[in-house]
Amino acid sequence: MPGTLYLVATPIGNLQDISFRALETLKNVDVIACEDTRHTRKLLNFYSITNKLISYHEHNESERAEEFAQRLQLGESIAIVSDAGTPGINDPGFRMVQKAHEIGAAVVPVPGAAAFVNAAIASGLPIDSLFFGGFLPSRKGERRKRLAEVKAVPATLIFYESPHRLCKSLTDCLEILGNRQAAVARELTKLHEEIVRGNLRELSVKYLSAISKGEIVLVIERSGEGKSVVKDERSLNERVKEIEAEGNDHMTALKKAAKEFGLSKSEAYRIFQGQYYMR
Ligand code: SAM
Was domain 4-110 assigned CATH 3.40.1010.10? Predict the structure, then answer.
């Protein structure tokens, strides 16, 4: 009879965020498949677990899935963990789960942390319906296309984001989705944990100047949530051009537009210079 594949969630920062059952499973399986053996060894050392580790990551996933399937067929038990959080959530795991089902092995989830769930519950936005979109594409054109695709989804939108792309993504979100309420959840469960709330305009201005570091989840209010969605979705640039067309010089137009957008003149100037709001 085939063995069992356990999908074991591990902490997303704070090493204490792991269940008794997860620790028991990691102690008792025949082998633990992990993304980075050095990383997972630190977690195991913290809990004095000395079990065998094998690396399993996106570059050797197909090959390893075959090898693990053979082990499962021999009746062995395998635990899959990722570097952080729930395996398979924007991490390897999916192919192995498919393979395990194909060969009739039992697949057992051992629940724990997932960054997007914790960002959602702490965001203060409605969470009765969620759309988790993983990472937004890194290329601007693709990112804007993806945002246009999800614009009308009637659910709170959640994305993983890298710190160096945060500002650009916030700006694209503002342009494509409108000025919705949002939250940037950073370094959850870690020393520098913070949840910054605001509308997309405020957040894109904040992260234009703030140095964003660490791991980030972006949570955005659903389409048509109501009063908090600003109806005027024009960009700063467009508004500046409109005011210029009314016969004002550039600096006057920028000053007036900045006031309307609730920005200081220097913030508006930097945004305009950086073409952050340009289509
Ligand atoms: N499997 C993980 C999970 O269950 O959430 C996700 C892995 S994905 C490769 C890594 C991304 O998750 C990070 O770039 C960040 O967007 C998000 N993330 C992971 N840990 C986080 C944390 N402690 N705080 C905020 N975001 C986090």
Answer: yes
Q: Is 205 in the pocket of ligand 1 (CB under 6 A)?
A: no
Amino acid at 71: R
Pocket test for ligand 1, best of 7, 8, 10, 12 (most atoms within 8 A of CB): 12
pLDDT tens digit string along 64-80?
999 999 999 999 999 99
Our answer on whether the CB atom of 80 is closer than 6 Å to any ligand 1 atom is: no
pTM metric for this prediction? 0.83
Query: Is CATH 3.30.950.10 what the domain over 115-220 is classified as, yes or no?
Result: yes
Tens digits of residue pLDDT in 5-36: 999 999 999 999 999 999 999 999 999 999 99
Strand intervals (E) in the chain = 4-8, 31-34, 53-55, 78-80, 106-110, 130-135, 156-161, 181-186, 194-199, 216-220
Instruction: Kindly state the helix (H) or strand (E) to which residue 271 belongs, with its residue range.
Output: helix 265-273
Residue among 263, 276, 198 at smallest CA distance from 235: 276
